[in-house]
Amino acid sequence: MTLKLPALDEVLAVTAERLTAMTPVQIDYMNARLSEEHYRLLEEDGRRFERLCTALGEEKVQRGRRQVWPLSPDEARRKAARLVAEPPAAVPPYIQRYDFLATVETYVSRIGRALDALNALDTERERMRPAQNLLWGEFRRRGGWSRFFLVMNDNGHIHSTDSPGMCGSLRPTTRINWLPDLSGMTVEEAVTKFEHNLCSRCFPGAPVEYRERQRPAEADDRCKGSGSYVELTAEQARRVSKFAACPECGRKVAVTSTWKIRKHPPK
């Protein structure tokens, strides 16, 4: 039977001693609650970042098919902190276009409030960190146990990890849900509990009928780095035509709009 996720305050108050008496299912229900809070903060972070950019008077720019803010979150924070510490002599013209009554005081005050609201989310994340460390510590103390995660999209499938570093088909932005009811089960036991396919990379030994059909990870005519996701610098991201070093062969290769290395031959 599916249990109800515990209250956040209950998870944050957990102790190492209490965890030793809990089952993997109970522990992973706590992890699922922290994961839910993580996604809530992530969505709120996006909204508050938008408000900060608006307060600064930034305007979105076109990059490929998307309109994005010209500043990264860190750049926006630094600019806001600088303006709050050293207010400008006059309200920027692009602010006056939308608010002709704005003064330097109101302009800086809006920026300060938006910056404080964004920084407050960091405090909330830090509040969760001790509980996250305790839960992870108990998992390691027991030598780990099986876990199952569902990708939240139309053709979502089951993974054995939520880490992009452990499964190449996951991305840092992939939204996943914990399936704590299945924690500690064998694959054979777990497949009787759900209708979704298994990721063939996470579960290479699972029965074929339960595994997601995937195209081979590589072909003879392409470098192994083709299709890899890369992090671009702010300067690279601003360019219409984006290039980055392939993590496999090191060559400079074109990058797609979703920051994937385009297909290219092996070195």
Helix content: 25-40%
Number of alpha- plus pi-helical segments:
8
Class computed from helices, strands and strand pairing: mainly alpha
How confident overall, as mean pLDDT?
A: 86
Low-confidence stretches: 213-219
- The count of β-strands is 7
Strand neighbour order, sheet with most strands: 4-3-5
Give the biggest beta sheet.
3 strands, antiparallel
Oligomer: single chain
Query: How big a fraction of the residues is strand?
Result: 5-15%
Calculate the terminal CA-CA distance, rounded to whole Å. Answer: 53 Å
What is the alpha-carbon Rg in Å? Answer: 23 Å
Q: Which shape, going by the Cα principal axes?
A: flat
Order of helices and strands: HHHEEHHHEEEHHEE
Quick structural gist:
The protein is mainly alpha-helical.
Helix-strand layout with pairing:
Blueprint: H1 8-12, H2 16-19, H3 24-56, E1 61-63, E2 66-68, H4 73-85, H5 93-96, H6 104-141, E3 149-151, E4 158-159, E5 176-178, H7 187-190, H8 234-238, E6 243-245, E7 252-254
Antiparallel strand pairs: 1-2, 3-4, 3-5, 6-7
Helix pairs in contact: 3-4, 3-6, 4-6
